[in-house]
Write a structure and sequence with these properties.
This protein is of the alpha+beta class and 148 residues long. The chain has one domain: Nuclear Transport Factor 2, Chain: A. The protein is built from five helices and seven strands; from the N terminus they run H-H-H-H-E-E-H-E-E-E-E-E. Strands 1, 2, 3, 4, 5, 6 and 7 form a seven-stranded mixed β-sheet that branches.
């Protein structure tokens, strides 16, 4: 059951972090651009751009505890009718080192899959690494926030 992984959507949400100008200002410009480009590619189902921003060893842990590799993650964006809606990352978290970063926060994710609109509140965390001068997403994890 790897239906357009919620994790996929979450990974996308991570890049939406850049929608918060204060957060983007705290990131190195090249990382901020990579995250922004990743986010825009998710919303546009731009598999080519996403593929260029995701490391070959990419791992995604979905909110249902399933795990996907890069090919599986990208395949979700080709599912007919799959669409992630733009979102804002709340309670942003970011830790940046010279060649690595963790970016995440809280996301109210909305997406369409199999003709049905879905919604889920998630905590997301993405690990970015700088390889050969380029920032690449290498790991993402999405966790459902219990409904109160």
């Amino acid at each position: 059951m790897r239906r357009a992984s919620v994790a996929l959507a979450i990974y996308l949400a991570l890049t939406s972090l850049l929608g918060t100008s204060a957060l983007a200002a705290d990131l190195p410009p090249d990382l901020a651009k990579a995250v922004h480009d990743y986010d825009q590619a998710q919303f546009a189902n731009d598999v080519t751009t996403l593929g260029s921003l995701v490391d070959e060893s990419f791992v995604l842990v979905n909110s249902n505890a399933s795990v996907e590799n890069k090919a599986q993650f990208l395949a979700d964006f080709n599912l007919p009718g799959f669409k992630i809606e733009p979102y804002v990352i709340e309670q942003p978290v970011h830790k940046v080192w010279q060649d690595g970063a963790v970016i995440g926060g809280l996301v109210n994710l909305h997406w369409t899959q199999d003709g049905k609109r879905q919604t889920r509140k998630l905590r997301v965390a993405y690990v970015w690494m700088k390889r050969d001068g380029r920032w690449l997403a290498t790991y993402a994890q999405v966790t459902r926030v219990p409904q109160s």
